[in-house]
């Protein structure tokens, strides 16, 4: 199969990428791995690429972000190519749809509606989405909250939707009380009930994050990074003695953990305000 010159054109932009994807999926001369894939097999890669974008941003790795955004864009092109093959829609349909949606959801930019704050824009956005759900015959408040979201993110979206119709605690103190209640229920739960009770605790912790205006995914990523940083401090301290964590014990490693915390506090204190 002869390749179109566009495939090798460095200025080819999105049409070039779409053509490369079509070539990879071509039954004759395409890539065997790409040809075998379907929506279900590619979806995990799409989610993974989203997290890699977030990771590059968190690390302020701008060169890395450029590459990760390309990988994420390729995922959209991949799904659109498979959809076109199945007769569902094309990449042009995807591009037209998102452009139309952005224009419709920003009447203050592309029309004569006046919106003067981010909060007002959020409210207007939700009103537009509610009308869109009604047009799709989605009458339930939670109908179109995607199942594919990370669980903590979906919990926040479900809670935000419910809050918009008044199903929410009015202040954070009540949420904290609920956290304590769910923690107690988990402590007292029979073994066969612990799974459900643990889920309830995580759900209310997500609600607490929402009331505190904290992104729970970002907070957990930061906690993961902190754990990694401090555990590496332990490894380095032991390596200086020619030992590994497996050669130590909990008491010693816990003391080194406290030393790592103290070192971090000193570093923060010495940083300019």
UniProtKB/TrEMBL annotation:
Record field: catalytic activity: ATP + H2O = AMP + diphosphate + H(+)
All copies of domain NTP pyrophosphohydrolase MazG-like, residue ranges: 37-110
GO BP term, pick one: response to stress
One MF term in the entry's GO annotations: ATP diphosphatase activity
Keywords: Hydrolase
Top EC group: hydrolase
EC number: 3.6.1.8
Pfam families in the cross-refs: MazG, PRA-PH
InterPro entries given in the database record: MazG-like_dom, NTP-PPase_MazG-like_C, NTP-PPase_MazG-like_N, NTP_PyrPHydrolase_MazG, PRib-ATP_PPHydrolase-like
Signal peptide range: none
Family as reported in the entry's similarity comment: Belongs to the nucleoside triphosphate pyrophosphohydrolase family.
Protein name, per record: Nucleoside triphosphate pyrophosphohydrolase
Organism the protein comes from: Pararhodobacter oceanensis
Upper lineage: Bacteria, Pseudomonadati, Pseudomonadota, Alphaproteobacteria, Rhodobacterales
